[in-house]
Amino acid sequence: MDMLMSAEKPVGPLSGLVAVLLPVRDGEREIVPALDRLRERSAGARVVVVDDGSIDATSSLVRRFFPDVFLLSCPRRGLAHALNAGLQAVQEPFVARIDVDDELVGDRFSDQASLLQDNPAAVLCVTACRETRGDSPSGVASAVDDFSGQGLVPVSESGRFLFPPTDGKELRRVLLRRNPIVHGTVMFRREAVLAVGGYDESFPVAQDYDLWLRLTEKGEVVMLPQIGYIRHPPVGQELRVKRRRQAWHSARAQWKHFRRTGRVDAFWLLRNLASSCWTGPRRGE
């Protein structure tokens, strides 16, 4: 049974306006530094740790060191279920999410909340992202300022920047081909996500891509032109296995979108299906 641990009401400019969902499973090594980083940038947003059935000390560490954080304990049923439980547990109109091993940049939450308030038709607000490689440093290079929506901008062997298109129509077009939105960069309207059914729990991965496609059928997506997130993806064989799974379930999301709307990029649908069968390294690995 899900249970929300009591915590003091957060204080700050985002109190009552923004909730931040941090889903985690067996994250005892990462949870304390993750919450320390988040505390510095939350600006009063409600922080909710959604424990997806951890069998290590994750929950006890949250209770011990972060009594001001809401802890939601869930059965071990996967990321989509954990996120849906978090959505049901909060009341704030705007919801952001991050992963336990990634990092925030700047005053992202405040900027995104302001942009959503200024654009009532917007259901989703995204930022650009820095993606590191291996053990590379996580600092953001200020010299890179191209937000033209080119998708991937190499920085060096240490990583790259990922820029979603800044134009809403172009972003919708790109979404038919692939997912240009890193889930840790988003803030969305809670009521809009609930209205489209939340996260589809049949997706073990790519559940965020499926949700973005459904949200774009109901409202607008706006882009905050700044680096708001640093992602540390897996490497090597683990990354290749994850990419194959993502390709398969991305094709599922595209097919579902086609059945709802009649819109699909057939080339990219087939490409995702082919990628789900490819076991070798990709160019640049």
Features of the shown structure:
285 residues, alpha/beta, Spore Coat Polysaccharide Biosynthesis Protein SpsA, Chain A, 2 domains, 11-stranded mixed beta sheet, 11 strands, globular
Provide a concise account of the structure shown.
The chain is of the alpha/beta class. The chain folds into two domains: 1-101, Spore Coat Polysaccharide Biosynthesis Protein SpsA, Chain A, CATH 3.90.550.10; 102-234, Spore Coat Polysaccharide Biosynthesis Protein SpsA, Chain A.
Report on this structure:
The protein is 35% helix and 22% strand. With 285 residues, the protein is α/β, with parallel strands linked by helices. The longest helix is centred in the C-terminal third of the chain and has 26 residues, at 236-261. The chain has helices at residues 31-41, 58-65, 79-89, 108-118, 168-175, 190-195, 207-216, 236-261, 266-275; strands at residues 3-4, 18-24, 46-52, 70-74, 94-97, 103-104, 122-132, 151-156, 159-163, 187-189, 220-231. Helix 7 (207-216) packs parallel to helix 8 and helix 8 (236-261) packs antiparallel against helix 9. The chain has two domains: 1-101, Spore Coat Polysaccharide Biosynthesis Protein SpsA, Chain A, CATH 3.90.550.10; 102-234, Spore Coat Polysaccharide Biosynthesis Protein SpsA, Chain A, CATH 3.90.550.10. The chain contains nine helices and eleven strands. Strands 1, 2, 3, 4, 5, 6, 7, 8, 9, 10 and 11 form an eleven-stranded mixed β-sheet that branches. Mean pLDDT is 86; it is low at 135-157. The chain starts with a strand and ends in a 10-residue tail after the last helix.
